[in-house]
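ENTRY TYPE: paired fold submission
RECORD: A
CONTENT: sequence, then structure tokens
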Amino acid sequence: MLNAHSHTQVKICGLTRAQDVQQAVGVGASYLGFIVEAPSKRRLSVAEAAKISALAKGQVPCVAVTVNPDDALLTQIIAKMAPDYIQCHGDESPARVTEISRKFKVKTIKAVGIASESDMKSAEEYVGACDFVLYDSKPPKGSDIQGGHGIAIDWNLIARAPRPKTFALAGGLNADNVSQAITQTQAPIVDVSSGVEASPGVKDASKIHAFMEAIRNG
């Protein structure tokens, strides 16, 4: 009998090593995220992202995670990496996200930091401008790194607010809390990075397995 979470999709983000890409493909991840030329301990050059994401080509959609990318960077990413999605994780406006999608003929994800009900309202502006919105935790004050901090969102904010049919939930998810997070928010997609790591950018195979099992076992 299928559990309530059996259809939940998983995005494993912040991948930096070939063996972790292969592991993520093997466990059935639905999306793979690579942080490209953006402030992060998991940062990759365009060439590095192109090389390791190629291992998943044709198997799992790959996401180039960017922060306020200009057209020159996007042109490089599209030419060398050919990702299935561009994730906008900075201050990009709905108009800019739409422009990226149209100009580069690529699917888009917009990450929005959530710490209040007004943030959920702001996130609504991106519905229709991107393929789906990613609700993430806001970075600690003073940090110029947008994601991967292991900080959870108050899931009640999401549970109470109107939500699009397709959205992703990130922010401090791990094997211990992901089932509760899905139950509370009804997230169809969950995004994990630090929750399956031994250290920043180095994934832990046992943690990835435990995360996937936690979802499958509901």
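RECORD: B
CONTENT: sequence, then structure tokens
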Amino acid sequence: MNLKVVYMGTPEFSVKPLEEIDKICDVVMVVTQPDKLVGRKQEIKFSPVKEYALEHGIEVFQPVKIREDYQKIMDLKPDLIITCAYGQIIPKELLELPKYKCINIHASLLPKYRGGAPIHHSIINGDEYTGVTIMYMDEKMDSGDILYQEKIKIEDSDNVGTMFKKLSVLGSKMIKEFLPRFISGDFESIKQDESLVTYAYNISKEDELISFNDTSRNIFNKIRGLNPFPVGYTVLDSKRVKLFSSRIGNGKTGSIGEIINIYPDGIGVKTSDGEIVITELQFEGKKRTSVKDYLNGIQNKNELLGKNFTE
């Protein structure tokens, strides 16, 4: 397919769709977020999409503000612009540039979960299904007409990390199937029902706090809906504790936030309607560990009983 495409994406989620597009189109440029300084040594880190582009000889463009710096894209005169978790709002001048307009690969079943963290919110809210939507782009956030959509089940064993991988694979399969139909005009577009719109804004620092004054199911969903990034936390003995995984227990008695049971592989904490068993955590200043290994390092495990997690 002799189609000049500019691809705009940043995280690992965006790589697999790019791989499929690169097989069937002429990807003339990749646009991605600026490099970041990470870690104590402040080392430069490239985005996964940039890594792919460099490995495959594709030109890379990294504007700090795409709304102010987009002439390089204009000069290329692409036939199509495809975005996938790019991370910035695209200006009107670019939306109107390509012959085939601009389309976006979005990780939700639009009009549900417009915004930057749809996968997190779908798990935190306990949804049974999520999916991928390919849509036209317009000036508003994720509000364009729907072109193609598929759903996938969220299992209890899933977290943000596993769903990112599953939805990335789904998105790559969908764009491979849809692009030939899109170019030939063999598709229908559907306007989003504005009455069904919900938003999935980026996770804030406040959102990362795990409160045990909630149902066990909601806490279970929130812990996995923040794992492996940014990771939820609570406080024990005035120290922050990150929570990575849990299961729902059967304990009933105790005060909310109190450690009420010690299991071979977990710590049972009282919730508003029962018990949540924490199975993987990370204490402040320590390494991430299974609770089983943590408990094996404690002489008197029962000393934990009666302690309270605080907010």
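NOTES ON RECORD B: The two ends are 56 Å apart (CA to CA). The mean pLDDT is 96.
STATUS: closed
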